[in-house]
C-alpha cells in the first residue's frame, strides 16, 4: 500500500481542511441542479393555434373570433385544433362564409400564441405539434453530453489530476451556460446544452473522487451526501427562480452566472494526495498533506511521511483493468447496471414533473425538498445497514413505487404526485448510496475511470429516459412501467456485491477479494470517537482494507 491512509489518520478524518473542501462544492452543486432541470420551466405549455393571417387579405375587418371560426377546424371537444388549419383558398370573404372550408393541412405558416406571453423555448422555437418531440430530444442531447463528459473527464482526471479537470469543467459550464442565453437557433441551443452536460459530469464525478480521497471512511458518507443536499437545495431554488423569471434567456443567465464566483476560491482547492502518490509525485503529496495537517492543527511525524511510496501500479489504469480480474469485473458490471437503472428511475420521475397534474413549481419544490431528508437519512442508513443492503433495498422500493403509479387513474393527480415524491425520495437516496459505494469499491489508480464508466452508464439511461416518454402516445402507462421494472432487477443484483462499510480505500488492483466488513458498530464508533482495537492501538476503522 502507499501509506496515505496512515498519514490521513494523523491529518484527521474530517477536520477544518476537509470541511472547507466540502464547502467549496456548494456553488458547483447548486449550478448543476439548475442546468439539470431548467429546461422543464423553459418549455411551459401554452395555448396555441395555426397562423391563419392569410384571411386578413380578404377580410381585414374580421374580429379574432370570426377569423378563427372561419379558418380553424374544431376537435371532438369543440375546441379549436392546435395543429391543423383549413387550407387557404383564393375566394372572396362572402364565398368563404357561404360555403365554408373543408380541406385541412398542417400549420405551414407557424403558430400564434397568447399576447403578452413571456418568451419561452416553446414560443420562440415553436416546440409544438410536429416539433413537440424536439423538447424531449434536446433533453436527450443534454444527457448525451453528460455521457461524453463521463467518458472524457473520467479518464482525464486519472491522468492529469482532479484539480485541473474541475477547473476545466467549471470554465466550460460557465461560458457555454451563459452562451445558451444568446443562441439564435434551437439546434445551436442543443449543441451548447450538450457541452454544459459534459461539464456537469466533469464537476460532479471529479469532486466526488477528490472528496472521497481526502476524507476518512467514517465521515465519507456525511461529506459526500452533504454536497448532494446542496443539489437538492439547488432544485428548490430553481423552482423559485423560474417562478420569478419567466423569460427563458434571463433565467439562463441568472442560473449560469454564479458559477464564475468559484474562481475566487479555486486557488485554495487542493489536489488529491492519494492521486499524487499513485503518480509518483511524493514530494508534492508531502507538501499538500503537511498543509492539510497544519490547517487541522495536527503534526505529521517525519518518519511517517517518509513511508509514503508509490504503489507498484503507478501508471493510470484503463477501462480494461476493470474487467481483467474476476472480482473487480463482477463489481464493475453490477455497478454499471445499478447506476443505469437508478438514473432511469430518477430522471423518469424528475423529467415528468409537468405531467403529474399539479402545479409544476410546487411539484418541483416538493421534489427538491424531499431529496434533503433522503440524502441526510442516507448518511445514517449507510452506517447502520451498510452500503450493499441500502443500495439494493432502495432500488427495489423506487421501482415498486413507479409500478404502482401505472395503475393510478389519470383523474387522481394528488395520489400520483404523492407516489412520485415517495419514488423520488427512494431514488435520490439510492443515487447517493451509489456515489459513496462506487467510490469505495474502485481502487485509487482507476477510481475515476471506474466512476466515469458508471456515470457513462447512468448518462446512457439518462439519454434514453426522455425518449421513453415518447411511448406514452401508445399507452400512458408504458413509460412508468419501464421506469419501475428496471430498478427492481438492478436492486436484486446488488445483493451480490461486497460490503465496504468501515474499510479503508484500496490504492491498487492487487489480487484478492474484498473482505466482508460488519457495520453494526460503525455508527457507534463514529459517535464515540476513535475506538481502539486489538491491533496495537490502531483504529478499528482502518484495520481492514478493501482490495481486488
Report on this model:
This protein has 548 residues and is mainly α. It folds into two domains: 4-45 and 124-496, Up-down Bundle (Growth Hormone, Chain: A); 49-112, no CATH class. It is built from 22 helices and four strands. The strands form two sheets. The chain has a two-stranded antiparallel sheet with strand order 1-4. Strands 2-3 form a two-stranded antiparallel ribbon. Helix 1 runs parallel beside helix 14. Residues 511-518 and 520-548 have low confidence and may be disordered.
Based on helices, strands and strand pairing, what is the structural class? Answer: mainly alpha
What would the CATH topology of the largest domain be? Growth Hormone, Chain: A
Binned, the helix content reads 55-70%
When the domains are counted, the total is: 2
Q: Which ranges are low-confidence, i.e. pLDDT below 50, for 5 or more consecutive residues?
A: 511-518, 520-548
Given the structure, what is the number of helices?
Answer: 22
Biggest sheet: strand arrangement: 1-4
CA radius of gyration is: 27 Å
Number of strands: 4
Fraction of residues in β-strands: under 5%
Brief descriptors of the model:
548 residues; mainly alpha; Growth Hormone, Chain: A; 22 helices; two-stranded antiparallel ribbon
